[in-house]
Amino acid sequence: MGAATLFFWLGRSQVSQTYKTALTITGLVTAIAFYHYLRIFNSWEASFTTTNGQLVPSGIAFNDAYRYVDWLLTVPLLLIELILVMNLSRQETVSKSFRLGGLAAIMIILGYPGEIASDPTTRWIWWGAAMVPFFFIVVELFAGLRTALEQQPKDVRGLVNTARWLTLISWSFYPVVFVFPMIGFTGGAAETAVQVGYTIADIVAKAVFGVVIYMIAVRKSEVEMSAGGGAAYAR
Predict the structure, then answer these.
(1) Which residue spans within 16-125 are E strands per DSSP?
(2) What is the rounded CA–CA span in Å between residue 143 and residue 147?
(3) Is 91 exposed, middle or buried (0-12, 13-18, 19+ CB in 10 A)?
(4) Phi, psi dihedrals of residue 147, rounded to the nearest 5°
(5) Which of 72, 115, 193, 212 sits between 20 and 30 A of 149, alpha carbons compared?
(6) How many CB atoms lie within 10 A of CB 214?
(7) What confidence tens digit (pLDDT) does each residue in 155-180 have?
């Protein structure tokens, strides 16, 4: 995540002024994730100790709140960076950013009580509640942005569509991982499966998605430069 942050922020020099904010946010997302992964690692390390060559709980509870604080900050930003790189009208940008960002925040907030619950029924209830805003996000991405997609330059429509599908696929992995403890995974195997699953999903949803955003910004900058000259790259 740290390397991705450097790539995105250094890559700002490769895009026109219009898309620099999108790349700034893209780098901010991975920077926030980098910090919280350090905190997650420290908490995980403190939760276990080695006794006679065996890994045993230390008595300090693993703090999964770091991951949810990360998501509460970064998940809305992921949607906002997609809106920004599409370069919609100011009114559309503000409206869709607030709508999608708000839905994303509600989704994360609803998911946390289930994450820390040990009772399967409670976990299922909060899982179902969090899936409601997730559904509306998907509808907005594929129905609400359909007209905006058609207004994009032909050279970037495929990339924007890739960004939408990458969001859907990578985000769909989170609710699947969430139910691991409810479908037979128990003990250390369950916790490990959840943490590894979330980490893989995070890398795809943030770093890989960010590369697609970068590619869109570069391609659109090239199109604009061809149409209006090199002044678009002014810092």
Answers:
(1) 48-51, 54-57
(2) 8
(3) exposed
(4) -65, -40
(5) 72
(6) 23
(7) 899 999 999 999 999 999 999 999 98
Take residue 227 and report the two structure tokens written for it. 């149409």
Q: Which residue has the tokens 């949803």?
A: 205
Cβ atoms 39, 66 nearer than 8 A: yes
Q: Are strands 48-51 and 54-57 parallel, antiparallel or unpaired?
A: antiparallel
C-alpha to C-alpha distance for 87 and 67, rounded to whole angstroms: 30
Alpha helices in the chain (DSSP H): 2-10, 17-46, 65-86, 90-116, 120-139, 146-150, 154-178, 187-202, 209-228
Contact 58, 45 (CB under 8 A): no
In this predicted structure, what is the pLDDT of residue 235? Answer: 46
Query: Rounded to whole angstroms, how far apart are CA atoms 153 and 145?
Result: 14
Sign of the dihedral through C-alpha 68, 74, 76, 79? negative
Question: Tens digits of per-residue pLDDT, 39-77?
Answer: 999 998 888 787 777 767 788 888 889 999 999 999 999
Q: What is the pLDDT of residues 102-127, one digit of tens each?
A: 999 999 999 999 999 989 999 999 99
Residue entry with tokens 């609400």: 144
- Ranges assigned E (strand) in 159-221: none
Domains of the chain: 2-50+64-233 (1.20.1070.10)
Instruction: Name the residue with tokens 């020099």.
Output: 13
Q: What is the C-alpha to C-alpha distance for residues 134 and 129, in angstroms, rounded to an integer?
A: 9
Q: What is the pLDDT of residue 57?
A: 77
DSSP for 37-49, written as a single string: HHHHHHHHHHTEE
